[in-house]
Amino acid sequence: MEDYIDALLLYLDEQRSSVMSSEYVSCLAREEAAAEALCRTLTEEQHRLFHSYDNARSATASAAEDEYARAAFLLAKEIFS
Questions:
Q1: According to the model, what pLDDT value does residue 51 have?
Q2: Nearest-angstrom CA–CA distance, 38 and 32
Q3: How far apart are CA 38 and CA 57, in angstroms?
Q4: What is the separation of C-alpha 10 from the centre of its chain, rounded to a whole number of angstroms?
Q5: CA end-to-end span of the chain
């Protein structure tokens, strides 16, 4: 049952940049600018720690996004079945 959901999630991920709102793009640009500004002030050790944190945060956000999308697909399947 999850194979088709994985295929849908992969498709959505590939299409992500074409469907993002200008608000999202604007928020993303501000986030990236803030991270770059912060990184310019960090020591080498702090920089390493920040990247470790950022990688872990990104993995968590990605997993949460996938689970949310998976739940939406399963709900739609239940509603329309």
A1: 95
A2: 10
A3: 16
A4: 13
A5: 14
Q: Which amino acid is at 63?
A: A
Residue with tokens 């770059």: 36
Amino acid at 44: E
3-state secondary structure of 73: helix
pLDDT for the residue 48: 97
Task: Spell out the per-residue pLDDT of the chain, length 81, in tens.
Answer: 468 888 888 888 888 888 889 999 999 999 999 999 999 999 999 999 999 999 999 999 999 999 999 899 899 988 988
Q: DSSP per residue over 27-70, as a string?
A: HHHHHHHHHHHHHHH--HHHHHHHHHHHHHHHHHHHHHHHHHHH
The residue to which tokens 């590939």 are assigned: 14
* Whole-number Cα distances in Å, 39 to 22, 32, 59, 65, 78: 26, 10, 20, 26, 46
